[in-house]
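Example 9 (inverse folding). The structure is encoded as follows.
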């Protein structure tokens, strides 16, 4: 996988031009805007908007990307794009009937192959959140879950601790 940091001048130029022509603000770059920028940098690579949104949330911890975080987000998008190429091939191998879907058991198998032990809880959560339990699973339904980094996934306790510290910071700023 080629890292985009070697293209930092090209990215800075492309970002400035994009922000000028599209009226983007310095307050934040949206997932749609970043997807367009990524496609200009890597015309042969495709990445879903869901993956771009997940990349922003992973790097920026919110739904907008600040200008100084663009390179990190683009590298995360790149990682997800290259991983998706492998996952598409593995998904097709499991989809012997060429229906574009696999069973829930096969989806959990893919999760376990990528995430190891942490996949057990993810698989349970995924299965319990499906609108039609027992139905076949498309790659689009699990692509973000498969591409999320296992070490970056926060436990419920960690998320609560972050929310508590953020609310404490808010209270301190308003004092």
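The amino acid assigned to each position is listed next.
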């Amino acid at each position: 996988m080629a890292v985009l940091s070697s293209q930092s001048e090209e990215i800075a130029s492309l970002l400035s031009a994009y922000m000028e022509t599209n009226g983007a603000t310095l307050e934040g770059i949206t997932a749609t805007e970043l997807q367009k920028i990524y496609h200009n940098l890597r015309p042969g690579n495709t990445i879903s908007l869901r993956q771009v949104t997940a990349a922003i949330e992973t790097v920026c911890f919110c739904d907008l990307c600040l200008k100084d975080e663009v390179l990190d987000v683009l590298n995360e998008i790149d990682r997800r794009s290259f991983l998706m190429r492998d996952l598409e091939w593995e998904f097709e191998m499991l989809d012997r009937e060429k229906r574009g879907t696999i069973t829930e058991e096969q989806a959990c198998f893919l999760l376990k192959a990528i995430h190891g032990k942490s996949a057990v809880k993810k698989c349970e959560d995924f299965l319990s959140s499906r609108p039609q339990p027992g139905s076949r699973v498309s790659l689009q339904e699990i692509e973000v879950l498969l591409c999320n980094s296992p070490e970056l996934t926060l436990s419920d306790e960690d998320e609560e601790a972050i929310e508590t510290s953020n609310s404490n910071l808010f209270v301190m700023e308003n004092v």
